[in-house]
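Hi V.,

You were right to ask for the full record rather than a summary. Here it is.
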Amino acid sequence: MNDTIIKLKNISKSFNKSKVLNNIDLEIKKNEFLTLLGPSGCGKTTTLRIIGGFEKPTKGEILFEDEIINDIPPYKRQINTVFQNYALFPHMNIFENIAFGLKVKKIESEEIKKRVQRILKLVNLKGYDKRTIDSLSGGQQQRVAIARALVNEPKVLLLDEPLGALDLKLRKEMQTELKNMQKKVGITFIYVTHDQEEALTMSDSVIVIDSGVIQQMGTPVDIYNEPKNRFVANFIGQSNIVEGIMIRDFLVEFSKLRFKCVDKGFDFNEKVDVVIRPEDIEVVSNDDGMLTGKVKSVIFKGVHYEMIVSQGGKDWIIHSTKKPKGCTIGMKIRPEDIHVMRKER
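Predicted structure:
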């Protein structure tokens, strides 16, 4: 059974001879929450707009359920979009905003009432149908925008940084609500963000994009624990990246010492980059440490202490629940917490 709903084949896009997307190949599954993640200007919103029909690719094919849809306009695609600015109609009440698309489609009034009431309940706005847009909070307006998109019963919902205008506390609340909504309605969500935590929290799959090229795709756990290159390692969370040599399978050298690791498949004595996350370095006594470093700074972050530790001419970031004692510490790293990457060519 084919569970792919959207396929992008060799998609490129240029604006004024400037290439924004470069040969993107991507398959999106039915009923998954997929996030396009990357810095500003990387091409993620352009990818979303191409899927929605708001932009045409310079080359390549967009397939929806195995049919090419390059020339199908947005309103004829089984895809709806929620924009960052919500694009709600201020002169209409909540019911009228949500019902707008259904009226355009000339759905019968009784059916419109049933659908709107059902969707208001889904987005936790039951009883709000007569309220005005400007009487709602930012989070409630965002829910109205999502309700207006969902009431048309699309097979895919596109969300272009919809939480960008909300404060931090409300963003976190809406992240949970959006994920729960996606599970309830059982349709594909394609979400655009530059917020790494948001992507890791909400997604089934994450696509990391930079300079119009897919750098890595996978589950949030894979993306975080097994970054494929320096860009992904640096962009997703904090990382310590040091130059190393892969002596042989399961043995790597860095900081002038050799460490057991779980990586294999490299050439003997191949030059590599080694990634170690700050939370994966255990703070121990000097005598018990594999490495010894000098503490340059300590900041309390609430859940943990963040330390900058100088070792072998490099500053290491370490996260620990223990406050360091003294000006030097030992650093202990387990083999499974050492991730080896090939050098970028």
